[in-house]
Amino acid sequence: MTRTLTEQILGGDAGEYVDRRVDRAYVHDGTGFLTLESFREMGVSPGIDPKRISVLFDHICPANTGLTADLQRELRLYARTTGMNFSDCGSGICHQIMSEGIILPGEVVVGADSHSCTGGAFGAFATGVGATDMAAIWASGETWFRVPETIGIRLEGRLRGAAEAKDLALAVVSRLGMEGATYCALEYCGEGAHTIDMEGRLCITNMGVETGAKNAIFYPDSVCRDYLAGYGHQIQIQTMQDCTYRQEVQIDLEDIVPLVTVPHRVDSARPVSDLAGIEVDQVLLGTCTNGRYDDLRRFASIVRGKHVKVRTIVVPASQDILFRATRDGIIADLIASGCMVMTPGCGPCLGVHSGVLGEGEVCLSTANRNFKNRMGVGGSIYLASPTTAAVTALAGCITDPEVSHA
Prior knowledge:
Elements: H1 5-10, E1 17-21, E2 24-28, H2 29-42, E3 53-56, H3 66-82, E4 85-87, H4 94-98, E5 108-111, E6 125-128, H5 131-140, E7 142-146, E8 149-156, H6 165-176, E9 184-189, H7 198-206, E10 215-218, H8 222-229, E11 247-252, E12 259-261, E13 269-271, H9 272-275, E14 282-286, H10 287-290, H11 293-303, E15 311-315, H12 319-327, H13 330-336, E16 340-341, E17 362-365, E18 380-383, H14 386-395, H15 401-404
C-alpha cells in the first residue's frame, strides 16, 4: 500500500507515534511571549539552531497599548540577541512570510498558531502547536506526532465564473463539518488540484484546521516548482500517488459557486445568491486567507473607478505584497475607491484593534473564522471570497458576483 504524502514525510503509518526533527518552527507576537516564558521556566539551553526558528510580529501591529509594546520589546530583544529570524511589525502575517520562499516541500514545519497548516500548500507537513509544546521544540529541536489518518480531497475540472479558491475552501469545510476531519490530514489530489495556483492553495490549506484537521497538503507539482523558483529554489516535482484514504471526497470544481458562510459557524456556507441583499456595515479584505497580491488585484479591478458604500478595510498580508501592489497601482485604485489600507498583518481579524465591530454590526470578511465575538462583542461576520467582498463593498449589501458581472 502506498503511503499518503503526510505518512511519507513523517515516516510512519497512520496511528503510529513518531519522533521528528522540526525543520522550521515559528511564533508570532501573540504566542511568542508565552513560548518564551515557558522556555525560561524549563531552565535549559536552546537545543535547536536559532536559524530554524522565526519570530514574526503580526497580530497587534503596531502595538495598541503600553503593555503590548512592553511584551513585544522583550520578545524582540530576545529574538535578536539569540540570532533567531526576526520579523518586526509591518513585515506581515507569519504564515505569509513563511510562504515567501522559506517553507519547502517535505519539511516538518510547526508554528504556534492554529493556521500554521498553511505551509502544506508546498507539500510540507505543517501544523500548529501550543506555546508549551513550542518551548519544548526550542529546547530539543524535535517533537513527536501521532501520524494522522488521511482524507483524500479529489479535485476534478476547473473553477469557472466568479468562483475562486476561497469558495472551494468554504465548500470543503461545509462538506466535512467543523469536526469532520479531527486529527486527520487533508490531502488534495486529482487533476483539478493542478489548476489551483499557489495563492489559492495557501488559502485552501489555511482553512484545513477549520475542519479539525491536523494538517492539509498539496503535492509539490510544476505550479509549486515555478513559484519557488521565483525565490531561488529548485525542487523536485512529486507525482501524485494512488493512496488508500480513510475517506475520499470527490469535488468537481465546475460545480463550485460563490459562497458565503452564515454567522457563527465556518461550516455554514450557502450560495451567495441565497443571502443577497443582507446589509453590511463593514467589508474586510485581507488576513492569512486572502490578503495576497492577486486577492488585492481582483478586488481593485472591481472597485476601480467606483466608490464603496461601507467601511472597507484592506490589509495586505505582507510588506512584499504591499510593495508590489503599490508599484502596480493597485493601492492607488483601492484608496481612490474609498478603501482604508492598513499596515501588513492580521488587522481586525483577531478583534483587538483596527476595525473591531460594534454591537449589532455586520461585516463581510475574507478571513477564515466567523465565530461569535471574534471581531467585536455583538458583531456578526459573514465569510466570502475577495470577489464577493468587492461587489458587496460597492453595493453595501451581500451581492452575488455572478449577477453583478452578468
